[in-house]
Specification:
InterPro entries: NT_sf (IPR043519). 63% of the residues lie in helices and 16% in strands. It has five helices and two strands, in the order ααααβαβ.
Length: 122
């Protein structure tokens, strides 16, 4: 019920953190052995992924701050990142018939540009 009703509802409401938490809780309840295996691997990878994510975000912020084109057309930007949640990793493994070690996109980054008003198309 949670995966079929509340997760899509959280997604539709734009509450990503809640959606990921609900997915992970459902995953833990429905597939405890798979959850434990993915959680163990994820925690081993987690610190390395977090360090990579922080380093990459810092480097990207630095490069963006030096961009003349970006300075000309924007009034600011935001760089954020996250680690893929456990259920999402599990789905990748199942859909792609992969081993968890073959899931290469465990982290993701997002860049949001605040474009100057005069360049926006309404």
């Amino acid at each position: 019920e949670c995966l079929q009703v509340f997760v899509p509802l959280a997604h539709a409401m734009g509450v990503g953190k809640l959606m990921w938490d609900l997915e992970d809780i459902s995953f833990r309840v429905l597939f405890p052995e798979s959850y434990a295996a993915v959680e163990e691997w994820h925690s081993l990878m987690g610190s390395r992924c977090e360090a990579t994510l922080e380093s990459s975000a810092r480097t990207l912020r630095g490069k963006l701050m030096l961009s003349g084109l970006l300075k000309e057309y924007t009034v600011g930007f935001d760089v954020s990142g996250r680690t893929k949640n456990l259920f999402s990793t599990f789905k990748k493994v199942l859909k792609g018939n992969k081993k968890r070690e073959e899931v290469l996109d465990i982290v993701g980054m997002r860049v949001i540009l605040n474009v100057e008003e005069k360049y926006r198309h309404n």
